[in-house]
Amino acid sequence: MDPARRASEEAALVARFPTLPGFAAARCVLLYASVFPEEVDTGPLVRQALDLGKRLVLPRVDRAAGRLRLYHVADLAADLRRGAMNIPEPKRTCPEVDPAEIDWVLAPGLAFNDACFRLGRGAGYYDRLLPTLPPGSPRWALALDAQWIDDLPVEGHDVPLDGVVSVSRTAVRTPSTAG
Q1: Which long-range contacts (CB under 8 A, 24 or more apart) does 78-82 make?
Q2: CA 81 to CA 83: how far, in whole Å?
Q3: By the number of CB atoms within 10 A of the CB, which of 27, 68, 150, 178 ranks highest?
Q4: DSSP for 109-171, written as a single string
Q5: Structural domain includes residue 161
Q6: Number of helices (H), then strands (E), in the chain
Q7: Is residue 176 assigned to a domain?
Q8: What is the CA radius of gyration of the chain?
C-alpha cells in the first residue's frame, strides 16, 4: 500500500474512532496493541482511550490455556512488554480484568467482510474470547480499505463483530447477516 495513502486512511480512522457506536458511553474498553504491518496502527487509539479517561484493557496470550487473558493498562510506557509474536502485551504486574467488565471492544484482523466477520491469524484467540464478553458490549474493528475481502472464508467457530469501519466502507451486522 502506498505509504501516503495508508497514512491518510489511518489518520481518518483515528478521527473516526471515538465516534464508533457505544464507545463514548463505555467505561472499560478492550483494545489491542498492533505490531503487524497488515493492521491499523492502534498506538494513537490506545493513547486516545487513556486521554478520554477510559479504563484501558489489553490482551495477553496465555498459550498454555489457549486463550487471551485481559489486563488493565494505565501507563503504556511502563505496563507493556513484548510478548507472543512480538506483540506489546501487559506485564504480569498489571491487574487482571474479568471479561464480564468489558463495555466495548476493538478487535484486530487481517481481513474483513460485509457480514462483519474477521480473518485473524488462525489461532482462534478472539473467537474464543468474544463469546465470554457481556452480550451487549459492542464489538468493532477498524480496517484499511485494502482489508475488505468479499469472499472471506468463514467457518462455524468464527464469531462476527457488530461492525467494521474503513475510510470508504462501513458494515454493520444485522440479524440477516448474523452468522
Answers
A1: 80/33
A2: 6
A3: 68
A4: -SEE-TT--EE--SS-HHHHHGGGS-TTS-EEEE--GGGB-TT----TT----SEEE-SS-EE
A5: yes
A6: 4, 11
A7: no
A8: 15
The pTM score is 0.92
Unique residue bearing C-alpha cell 474503513: 166
- Residue 154 CA to residue 118 CA, distance in Å, equals 8
Domain contains 142: yes
| CA separation for the pair 108, 42 (Å, rounded) | 10
Which residues constitute the domain of residue 159? 3-170
In the three-class reduction of DSSP (H, G, I as helix; E, B as strand; rest coil), residue 60 is classed as strand
What's the structural domain count of the chain? 1
Q: Under a CB-based contact definition with an 8 Å cutoff, are residues 82 and 89 in contact?
A: yes
Residue 33 lies in a domain: yes
Cα torsion angle, 15, 146, 131, 163, sign: positive
| pLDDT for position 43 | 92
Q: What is the CATH number of the domain that holds 134?
A: 3.40.50.10420
